[in-house]
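QA checklist item 7 of 12: single-chain prediction sanity check.
[x] sequence parsed
[x] length recorded as 344
[x] structure emitted
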Amino acid sequence: MRRNQSKIEQPKTIVCEVPEKVSLDLEKFKNLPFNNLFACPQYSTKVSLSPEETTTINQEIENFKKYQAKILEINQPQKTQILQTADKLAKEGKYLDALQKYYLALGALEITEYDILTVMTEEVSFNPIVDSFFKKITPVLEAAKPSLLAQKQEIKSEIFALFDNFSVEANSPARKIQEIAALQLGFNVLTVHSQEFKIPENKVLAFVDVADLLQKHFNDKSQAFNHKLDKRLRSYINKNKTAITTIRNLLLNDAIPRWGIDYKWVKEGDFNAPSPSYIGMVNLQRLLIIDILDKQQQRNTQEMLKSLEASWKLSESLQDEPSLIGQLVNLIIRRSQLRVLEKN
């Protein structure tokens, strides 16, 4: 391939079709001006392009120019102030601070979390901007590694200390609530398999019969409360009114339940260890919600407020729960409480 010696005009699109057995040494052309025209090499054939194909190629050329501009900005930032700050911190040896700034620069460079994941999992990247960015920060990551490892160990120590503060023994109110829920309502509350109460078969069947109805009622998003409960659900609640009231009074008059969940598996890294089921906590909350709304229907404001307070104390028992799922359940409970207040 040779540079066209004729007078250079407005660039046109030329595509050369090269036979299979002909090889081109592209290294010879990497320093040539980007928009120069090239004559097709010997043994090749010029190919005419349709207007659509020409538009596509021109768009790719524009994208290439944008890539070039962004890569240049990454390596020698002129407009992105946060990149300039990061480079300055890296030169000063403040590697952790520099990495924080580089992370904040991702948005300006249109680099997403998925791009980061692709690099971290060593998948093939087809984004030259991402590749250039990580090539730039790799020396900073290496220099920061000792500090990052020390920071990681400090965080682990804090987490382990936090878990050590949790008693692995449930307190008296928690055990009483668990016992009543199991033996009378038909489900376990926040117990692992080894701690579960043996539930009478008739109680299991009675609760299973209304579990879906209870969920449907609990998820009701209408502003007006449906006073007409399904007959089966109303029958279940009426039969277990004493048990629900006893749990309500325990929540009102005793200490906040502490469920005695053992987080030793976190420290030991045993992620196959059994974790407690939180669905029983949600089921108990659903029953308390219906109790609140029943009191409201009866226009018994004082008792309604007591039931609402009991529901609130149940959610407080998860307030310091360190697991993600425990906090998600707590959010579900709090959201239901807000919806009750909207209905009243």
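[x] summary fact logged: Residues 128-164 form the longest helix (37 residues).
[ ] second reviewer sign-off
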